[in-house]
Amino acid sequence: MEAKVLSTAGKEVRTISLSDDVFAREVSEGSIYHAIRNELANARVGTASTKTRGFVRYSGRKPWRQKGTGRARAGSRRSPIWVGGGTTFGPQPRDYSYRLPRKVKRLAFESILTQKAQDGSLTVVEDFTVESGKTRDMAALLGTLTDKKRVVLIMKDDDEMVKRAARNIPWLRFLNYGRLRAHDLYYAQQVIVMESAASALGDFYSK
Question: Which of 100, 136, 193, 199 keeps 20 to 30 A from 90, CA to CA?
């Protein structure tokens, strides 16, 4: 497919040929769901913890004798039915992460990029840098390319000056073409792809 390449001033300068395997394929909504679910699960800390009756600190003595008191039988103050006792079936520390098949994850990225290209929320811009490394200059540059408030910038190389200028912009996420995140891409209102990254995406996902 053909796409316009914009300058940092927002003007069309040329066209670029994008890989149909990445930007014009059949969308798989199932793979998108699984990729986002996998990322959210892998990000969970899993440190929630409750005390069972074995961890509650109380004396082990029997509260009162078994018979003759008129009260219900009781063997321990650590019982879950007592106030201050242990918790039954409460959460324990665990690892929520799991591995998603590589082909499913690749299909998800291709499907999301195709969706963004189809609905017009994907923009290819010529490669740029921010020499000053200032957030003000980065925000001004992005202002000429989009008016959205949830933007993803895809780069080919990790430009330290761009990352320095962009890290304090709360509505901007920057990704490397080889380390995409399905959650950020899917929920972005605008995806800005540098020209070199657009070509690299076609080569990377067509392997």
Answer: 100
Is 0.70 topped by the overall pTM? yes
User: What's the average model confidence in pLDDT over 188-207?
Assistant: 87
| Residue 133: HSE in the Cβ half-sphere, 13 Å Cα cutoff | 5
Res 47: pLDDT? 95
DSSP 8-state code for residue 63: S
Report phi then psi at 154, rounded to 5.
-105, 125
Check pLDDT > 70 for residue 207.
no
**Looking at residue 181, what is its pLDDT?**
95
Cβ neighbours of residue 165 closer than 8 Å, sequence gap 6 or more = 130, 132, 133, 134, 135, 137, 138
CB 195 within 8 Å of CB 16: yes
Where exactly are the structural domains of the chain? 2-31+100-205, 45-95
